[in-house]
């Protein structure tokens, strides 16, 4: 199988006056199409830095990133965002507050087009957006609501829908349920899993929730001090207990 993403010898160094620190220290990782990879690790292990390097938000010091065999290491964020989408932890970061739910969905659907062309087709897209949210009690009847009026859980659900509406080649979830209350977090995690499986998306998901890490995905890696210290496939992951996992923290 041709890998979707290949990270080769990724190093990110922070230069300090007295001491240089490798926050990514020779990371090698291959992700195949339809992989749902869960990423665990202590605070400061380098998880977000790894996602930053994949999206181009923060460039590597050395190493290479290949997407579908193409070297994207030097590509800018805008170019990569055609193929890669990301949902952050903060419900305020993914949506435009002064726009309605439908307008936000349309912007996401027409990402990559010139701005003036993006909002013209609102009316004709409404049935599709209605269908998208029809089974989601949290957003039902909210298409014309301004995003700033939504709860954190509703905004985060919208951010997730915006991230998948164009079917990204790679979906990056950066603790996207961590800021939500337990029930809302569970609902969004279940929706996430359902959509990833239905649409056969390839996904990397950072979480600190050990039970989510064990329950979801077909592969699990643990990062520590910028290195991958554990990489398990589905069968190995299924044998794990929470206390096995805790040893790595
Ligand atoms: N621009 C920067 N300058 C200096 N240090 C940085 C910079 N960016 C990240 N770091 C450091 O690099 C390390 C890795 O940070 P990163 O945010 O990737 O960790 P993380 O695994 O995502 O942590 P968390 O679970 O807390 O989100 C941390 O020690 C952080 O302080």
TrEMBL record:
Q: Which InterPro entries match?
A: AAA+_ATPase (IPR003593), ABC_transporter-like_ATP-bd (IPR003439), ABC_transpr_LolD-like (IPR015854), P-loop_NTPase (IPR027417)
The reply to whether DNA damage figures as a keyword in the UniProt entry is no
Question: What sequence ranges are listed for the domain ABC transporter?
Answer: 5-249
Stored Pfam families: ABC_tran (PF00005)
User: Could you name the Gene Ontology cellular component terms for this entry?
Assistant: plasma membrane
Keyword match Cytoplasm: no
Q: Which domain of life is it from?
A: Bacteria
A GO molecular function term, named singly, is: ATP binding
User: Which UniProt keywords are given for this protein, alphabetically ordered?
Assistant: ATP-binding, Nucleotide-binding
The protein depicted here goes by the name ATP-binding cassette domain-containing protein
Annotated source species: Companilactobacillus farciminis
